[in-house]
Amino acid sequence: MSNVSRTDGGWTDVTLSHLLTVERLSSYLRACDADINRALRLYEWNMSAGSAVIATTGTVEVIVRNALDRQLNSWARRKGHQDWLGFLPLDQRGRDDVAKARSRATLRGRRTEEHGRVVAELSFGFWRYLISQRYHASLWVPSLHKAFPGAVTDIRKRRQDVERRLVNLMLVRNRAAHHEPIHRRDLLADLEDAIELVGWVHPQAGAWVGAVSALRQVASARPA
């Protein structure tokens, strides 16, 4: 490994490699032919890429969950219920997720429950799970497919298309959130998934995500 110093900052690349650990840097070192200086530059870029991923997928999450929430509320009201939170035919995992979200939203019963707060406490994984094959007949067909009017007309294919993009975006979001390497990913393909998914909710949403996401700029700045 190189002992090149960064005297202007008062630290060395070798010092940083020790603090980060070689194990942590292994993916970057492999990509850079074991050159510690280049590996650290790639690590720094990976941090910027992770921030852009978190911002983009966070926007997708809000748009998608609100679209699903609107359809579920509409369906619940047609069935004579004011709120879908206690109405959906969820499995134990889903019921547990809702119960935890209600507890967090009410500060464990210390404040009045508000629907919007509970929805905001439900994880990205919860919404992705609602799109799975498990709920195709019970939720997707009667309600959730309407959240994506811009997708293909075939309802089964629509669910598969939405699920694939949600799974992919959750994967890259989770890796970014845990500071894992994403430098080998095609971030432009991830961005296209995000644009397409929210564009199925509304075309203006897709255009907006494409305009505000930093993923294009970050991808173009990746170190050689």
Describe the model:
The chain is mainly alpha-helical. It has one domain (5-220). The chain is 66% helix and 2% strand. It has eleven helices and two strands, in the order E-E-H-H-H-H-H-H-H-H-H-H-H. The chain has helices spanning 13-20, 22-31, 36-78, 92-105, 115-121, 124-130, 136-140, 155-177, 187-201, 203-212, 215-220, and strands at 5-6, 11-12. Strands 1-2 form a two-stranded antiparallel sheet. Strand 1 (5-6) and strand 2 (11-12) form a beta hairpin. The longest helix has 43 residues, at 36-78. The two termini are 19 Å apart. The model is unreliable at 1-10 (pLDDT under 50).
What is the terminal separation in angstroms? 19 Å
Contiguous low-pLDDT stretches (5 residues minimum) are: 1-10
The H-and-E topology, N to C, reads as EEHHHHHHHHHHH
Q: What proportion of the residues form beta strands (DSSP E)?
A: under 5%
Question: In percent, how helical is the residue content?
Answer: 55-70%
Largest sheet report: 2 strands, antiparallel
Q: Could you tell me the mean pLDDT?
A: 92
The total strand number stands at: 2
Please describe the topology of this protein.
Blueprint: E1 5-6, E2 11-12, H1 13-20, H2 22-31, H3 36-78, H4 92-105, H5 115-121, H6 124-130, H7 136-140, H8 155-177, H9 187-201, H10 203-212, H11 215-220
Antiparallel strand pairs: 1-2
Helix pairs in contact: 2-3, 3-8, 3-9, 4-5, 8-9, 9-10
